[in-house]
């Protein structure tokens, strides 16, 4: 009976609301980000150099916003109104894209409005962490986190094809109007679907903050720094793979671009069961050990792509891709959460920022390695970096020596 109750807590109305809102915000991101380059290149009519500026600005803006707002949000009793406000910013940003084709106006909107709106995802994730810490049995937290992250995989299975379909048949005005409507819907329903949480240990007295790093002892600070660097490298190689694969297939292997979507869709579909299985296994073992193992899957993937010469080999390698990304995305936030107990906003923001740092690093990797040696060499560089990331994870000791925050 106890086991049955532990399983059903994953399907309570609050949990279902978290799943839905995570999926909804994920769909918005999956509609916007893949189509942004086409928007600037075709609709606004700028060269590739100018197309890259909004992407870099979004990454940098997201890092700053996530870290500042994430740390501040930990002092809030209720972060739901913050989610509402961020979604309304997203509505404004999408309407600018729907109505304007002026480069600098849309570029600044992407950097200052869309990157700020994307913090809504981090805050929903932070709410889910607080809900897990305060309302779920300890052994169910990792599985719950994996189910939450699986919603992003679901969103990215459907979002990019839908975005390109809408843009090609009805235009970018319709696409960004739909994205604005989704942001508005999340703003409206989030206070109803996410009730206020009674946080254990929350005091009405002003909190004496020592900062994110000041709340940890020396060993934990070192482990957290290594962990953040390792996650950044893992997301770097993943992004570099996503950027390089289409060009490697078309230029080096003479494979049609149509197959790229099928390959990526296969990986996204396989990631979901991997995430859920990883969540089950994380209840029986340290999630950090599974993340370490995912680095090995990444090494198999990039070595395989480097050597592959046939389409079926690339499809087969998506199993390794699904294990790599499924564990990384499904359990990464759980590892950071172990190292920052009671700091849900900071944990989710810090983990989310590793994806943005990875985006910046992958841009440098592509610009340097691919420009000098070709796109195939990117996968060789990925092998080196994923080995380095795995080595860094071996030095991390999650959850050791964490000092409680002063109040």
Automatic annotation (TrEMBL):
Bilayer topology: Multi-pass membrane protein
Subcellular location: Cell membrane
Keyword Membrane: yes
InterPro entries, per database record: MFS, MFS_dom, MFS_trans_sf
First-listed, main subcellular location of the protein, grouped into a coarse class: membrane
Highest taxon of the lineage: Bacteria
Family: Belongs to the major facilitator superfamily. Set transporter family.
This protein's record includes keyword Membrane: yes
Residue ranges crossing the lipid bilayer per the database entry: 16-41, 47-69, 81-104, 110-129, 170-189, 222-247, 259-283, 290-312, 318-336, 348-366, 372-396
Keyword entries, A-Z: Cell membrane, Membrane, Sugar transport, Transmembrane, Transmembrane helix, Transport
Protein's recorded name: Sugar efflux transporter
Domain Major facilitator superfamily (MFS) profile, chain residue ranges per copy: 10-401
Organism classification: Bacteria, Pseudomonadati, Pseudomonadota, Gammaproteobacteria, Cellvibrionales
